[in-house]
Amino acid sequence: MHSFMKKGLFIVAAAGMIGSFQMETSAADTANAGTLSISMEAVLKETKDEYINKEDTQTVIMQEDTEESVVVPEQKGKYLNMAFANISSGYIEVKSSPSQDSDWVGKLYSGSAMTVLGPVGEWTAIQSGNVKGFVETSSIMVGEEAQQEAREREAQAFAENKEVTFSYGETKEEEQARLQREAEEKRRKEEEQRRKSGQAVVDFAKQFIGNPYVWGGTSLTNGADCSGFVQSVYAHFGFSLPRTSTAQRGVGRAVSYAEAQPGDIICYNGHVGIYAGNGQIVNAQDPAHGIGLSPATYTSIVTVRRMF
């Protein structure tokens, strides 16, 4: 029988003994009964003081103006086996066995919560999410300190009217999957940004459609030749391109025409333009047509260059 249950039975039994004793005593024995009652009150107070603050699921509490005891459920013990990663940055490796030489099976990050599975020594067996293994005890927060941390997080969540949640570690496989997702998301965002930047180049270049072609010119309003037009458009976006169409074949990085996106530079033998999408380029064509749109495949393509 649990110790507090034994003491609870003793309290109830003692209370019964007091009542029986007082019924049998005469008025002349009142003084002695009072002395015994005071002694029993001291015993009850000692029992109450011993259990009132225990980290347990139940607590024995004496009701006011009565000698009966009641068992009141406690919530303080629900975080009894909880622990937290005690680091401000980086991670803690969870090992497959209690040794630095063993393989790591997962990682805990700052604030990661875990459940203590075994005795706390130099190493502690824990589980955090799907990670199960061993960590050095010096790297985690355990005991009353961890329980207090959990209660504070709980109180903060209640104050903000939020659900009480904890973050957990991740297995080696979960980390690999997360890193792959993050890399794919990074590539997606970079590709989206390239597309937006390329489209911005096209939108800017199209403003000058109808302006004149001028051999050797670089003015987007007063006239430019093919390479002068490309050079001036890209200068608006902070790029310093060479002056001739031949030299512009080496800028940026090469992509295939099948991969061409708006904003790419398409180079021909003796000509250059900016890919506008839908199989067209915006370019300074010749003195008869000025700056306008032309089919991207009007002649053989030498190379396609991407600046973003």
Automatic annotation (TrEMBL):
Q: Where is the composition biased (Basic and acidic residues)?
A: 170-195
- Supply the Pfam families for this chain: NLPC_P60
PROSITE patterns xrefs: NLPC_P60
Show where the NlpC/P60 domain sits. 195-308
Q: Which SUPFAM superfamilies match?
A: Cysteine proteinases (SSF54001)
Q: Where is this region: Disordered?
A: 169-196
Gene3D superfamilies (UniProt xref): endopeptidase domain like (from Nostoc punctiforme) (3.90.1720.10), SH3 Domains (2.30.30.40)
InterPro entries recorded for this chain?
NLP_P60_dom, Papain-like_cys_pep_sf, Peptidase_C40
Keywords (A to Z) from UniProt: Hydrolase, Protease, Thiol protease
Family to which this protein belongs: Belongs to the peptidase C40 family.
UniProt protein name? NlpC/P60 family protein
